[in-house]
Design goal:
11 strands, 10 helices, 35% helix, 351 residues, alpha+beta, Transferase(Phosphotransferase), domain 1, 3-stranded antiparallel beta sheet, 6-stranded antiparallel beta sheet, Phosphorylase Kinase, domain 1
Length: 351
């Protein structure tokens, strides 16, 4: 796929400023929207793929799926169009890098930062779940991290609408990334929100330890590991990982979807136990809505100590003011009786 020269104008509207990255399906450019005078990212489908109906359909699906998701932890899609033989998506330009590149530079992240980023990813993915979508391809490459530390989910190219998923369906073609997809996806089964939770668990393991739980030389072997081999202990790789957090990792990496948290919202709520307030101040109240409390590992459910109730202290100032008010009102009664008896017409006078 040849790179577009700087200055190229797409769709009569978007001026190319540079290249941001290249993937198997598309190349992403930094561009400027000449109509709205703002910077955008332009994702252009590879020139040799538009003739392939399946790739064209996936590209259109990504545009439609993501365009309906408006959330601070999801990259916003602005436009979809054609420029000659080129098919493109215009989306929010994120100043930062993807989580995979960030980990390559820094290795494993501090516990608080790692958990905070995954909580934000859970907020975005959970919003997609509530909108009826399963992402199906969550990985650090598809989580952008802004310069101020906000995580944003991108690339809904193989997202599935929950309404179109049948639990008994089996596919011979498995879409997704072998290092991160769930056991049921590896087996060609139907994905679900719990499949995204598994992928978030793999990402959580990686940001905490700096390595993947399952590694192999080919996709077939990776698929077998996801389906049958228990994950290693995160604490064996990074002793700083709290035991309770390790239990959460084990839960979300369960082979059976029913043994995991059902949605990304639930996982996010549980992880908030370990996140400092500074990582959560940017989350809107709608980011992770109130849910029925999910089952937590025993290590995270110890009750908080409660302070003994204090006896209520008597407010003597209020008592004194009340007494004065009573005396003031009570003193008016004799005065009224005296004034009334001074008149012959007083109903209280005895004839």
């Amino acid at each position: 796929m040849s790179e577009l020269p700087i200055g190229t104008i797409l769709g009569g509207r978007y001026r190319v400023l540079g290249t941001l990255g290249t993937g198997g399906m598309a190349r992403v450019y930094h561009a400027r929207d000449l109509n709205l005078q703002r910077e955008v990212a332009i994702k252009i489908l590879r020139e040799d793929l538009p003739s392939d109906p399946s790739f064209q359909a996936r590209f259109v699906q990504e545009a439609r799926a993501a365009a309906n998701l408006l959330h601070p932890n999801i990259v916003t899609v602005y436009d979809f169009g054609q420029d000659g033989a080129r098919t493109f998506i215009a989306m929010e330009y994120v100043q930062g890098t993807d989580l995979k590149t960030l980990m390559r530079r820094r290795g494993r992240l501090p516990i608080e930062e790692a958990v905070g980023l995954v909580i934000q990813a859970c907020a975005g993915v959970g919003y997609a779940h509530r909108a009826g979508l399963v992402h199906c391809d969550l990985k650090p490459h598809n989580i952008l991290v802004t310069s101020d530390g906000r995580a944003k989910i991108t690339d809904f190219g193989i997202a599935r609408a929950l309404a179109t998923i049948h639990p008994e369906e089996v596919s011979e073609v498995v879409w997704g990334s072998p290092q991160y997809f769930a056991p049921e996806q590896a087996a060609g089964g139907a994905p679900s929100p719990a499949s995204d939770v598994y992928s978030l668990g793999i990402i959580l393991f990686e940001v905490l330890t700096g390595s993947l739980p399952f590694q192999a030389t080919d996709a077939t072997q990776l698929s077998r590991l996801h389906q049958s081999v228990p994950p290693p202990s995160p604490r064996a790789v990074n002793p700083d990982v709290p035991a309770a957090l390790e239990q959460i990792v084990f839960k979300v990496l369960s082979k059976e979807p029913s043994a995991r948290y059902r949605t990304a919202d639930q996982l996010g709520r549980v992880l908030m136990t370990f996140a400092p307030r500074t990582q959560l101040t940017d989350l809107s109240p709608q980011a992770l809505p109130a849910l029925t409390p999910p089952h937590l590992p025993e290590a995270t459910t110890s009750p908080l100590p409660l302070e003994p109730a204090r006896a209520a202290s008597l407010d003597w100032v209020a008592v004194a003011l009340g007494l004065l008010a009573f005396l003031a009102v009570g003193g008016l009664v004799p005065l009224w009786l005296w004034a009334c008896l001074m008149y012959p017409s007083c109903p209280l006078r005895i004839p």
